[in-house]
Specification:
The chain is mainly beta and 90 residues long. It contains one helix and eight strands, in the order ββββββββα. The longest helix has 10 residues.
């Protein structure tokens, strides 16, 4: 499942902080990314629970509504993959 940039009321925002890493287990409403614009800073919450499979953005990237931020794998979908992801995380 992909977590995308929601409508935050501006045309574009900058990725100021990535609050998770590959292998992290997140719950619904956990903050994933901090976005900053000239108007506000917004933490993007997860719309699903799962394991962070990949991070599609980097610090300083400019994003707009609909940009893919994080790829999640449903919790329990593949325990072997989760163990692998944790092992690959430095």
């Amino acid at each position: 499942m992909q977590i995308k940039t929601p409508d935050i009321g501006v045309d574009k925002a900058t990725v100021a902080e990535i609050l998770v890493k590959v292998g992290d287990i997140v719950a619904i409403e956990d903050s994933l990314v901090l976005l900053e614009s000239d108007k506000a800073s917004v933490e993007v919450p997860s719309s699903a629970a799962g394991i962070v499979k990949s991070i599609a953005v980097n610090l300083g990237d400019e994003v707009n509504e609909g940009t893919v931020l994080i790829e999640l794998e449903a919790a329990g979908q593949s325990d072997a993959d989760a163990v692998e992801a944790k092992a690959e995380t430095p």
